[in-house]
Amino acid sequence: MDFYAKTEKLSDKDFKEIIGVKRSTFEAMILILKDTYNSRPRKWRGGRKKKLSFEEQLMLTLKYYRYYITQKALAFEFEVGEATVSDTIKWVENALIKDGTFSLPGKKVLLEDDSIEVVLVDVTECPIERPQKNNESIIPAKRKDTQ
């Protein structure tokens, strides 16, 4: 199943909402991944042909970060092993970071820049349902000293 082929029919707005980046940004990332792969020595590119295309590898990584989905669920969805998912995410991350086009400035640059006036941090609390204790759910322990 080619997941990228399904996204070609989407409008630019829907593509950004589903994938998380603009189509032009996605295409720029694909070019970086292809250049990174082709710049490796030929002997390191050997072995079996990859099951996932560059587009699918990038989609897998973006989905992992956008939706916080588990690697096991991604492995099931993309029909690959969990190790393949982990290796793919690491490779895509490293390729994009090494290129530097999509990297963010470090902390030192932010500290030196005086133009930042406001920093907004999302610290929303989410309620967690916890089981309620009642007498019926407690199992009495057997003691030797009681009769």
Account of the 3D structure:
The chain is built from 7 helices and no strands. The chain is mainly α. The N and C termini lie far apart (67 Å). Helix 5 packs across helix 6 (82-99). It has helices at residues 3-7, 12-19, 23-39, 54-67, 71-78, 82-99, 107-112. The chain is extended, with a radius of gyration of 24 Å. The protein has a domain at 13-40 and 52-106.
Low-confidence runs of at least 5 consecutive residues: none
Cα(first) to Cα(last) distance is 67 Å
Mean pLDDT: 81
Beta fraction:
under 5%
Cα Rg: 24 Å
- Please count the beta strands (DSSP E, at least 2 residues each): 0
* Class of secondary structure makeup: mainly alpha
Which bin fits the share of residues in helices? 40-55%
Q: Tell me the number of helical segments per DSSP (H or I, 4 or more residues long).
A: 7
Overall form: extended
SSE order, one letter for each helix or strand: HHHHHHH
Largest sheet descriptor: none
Please outline the helices and strands.
Elements lengths: L2 H5 L4 H8 L3 H17 L14 H14 L3 H8 L3 H18 L7 H6 L35
Helix pairs in contact: 3-6, 4-6, 5-6
